[in-house]
Amino acid sequence: MLGQVEGVFDLRRARGHRRIVASPAPSAPDEASLQRALQAAVTRAEAVGERFTLPRQRVLRLLLEAGRPLKAYDVIAATGRDGSQANPPTVYRALEFLTRLGLVHRIESDASYVVCSHSGHDHGHPPLMMVCDRCGSVAETRLEDIDTTARQAAAAQGFVLERLVVEARGLCAACTGAGAA
């Protein structure tokens, strides 16, 4: 499992509409969980003929440890905590690689990065990223019908859709006091 937020939100049908129900946020991953996540990432990279270099591992580990979205410069600053700060191009290349492999998602609205919480899923459909405006937490789910609807609408206009970004901003259940159902 790569994501530290797996299962934070699940999707349920309620009166014909989709309703998002929150679960409690998990605690920071322990070392064994981090190692399993890093090994899964190495395996995924090797499966597509890519090397999972030390800088890539370091960036993924920082994102896993953070448990929240980080901007590239936050990652760069965090690499300096042990006295060996990474160069910005190295971090940006690592983030691009991790995003391309589907291990990390970029939150477009604020240019931050978060670990994918749905390890092992088909990355053929875009994630719905739900960003809390108060606490900054991010939850992810997949809505296949959003992808289908967007592609149909694009095709009807003669538009070739190459990438779909779906983000929702609001308040998470913890910030609204809704709690888990």
Considering the chains and any ligands shown, give keywords for the structure:
181 residues, alpha+beta, Arc Repressor Mutant, subunit A, globular, 6 helices
Walk me through the topology:
Elements: E1 9-14, E2 17-22, H1 31-47, H2 54-66, E3 70-71, H3 72-79, H4 88-100, E4 104-107, E5 112-115, E6 127-132, E7 138-142, H5 144-156, E8 166-170, H6 173-176
Parallel strand pairs: 6-8
Antiparallel strand pairs: 1-2, 3-5, 4-5, 6-7
Helix pairs in contact: 1-2, 2-4, 3-4
Described by the principal axes of the CA atoms, the overall outline is globular
What share of the residues does DSSP label as strand, in percent? 15-25%
Oligomer: single chain
Question: Counting H and I runs of at least 4 residues, what is the number of helices?
Answer: 6
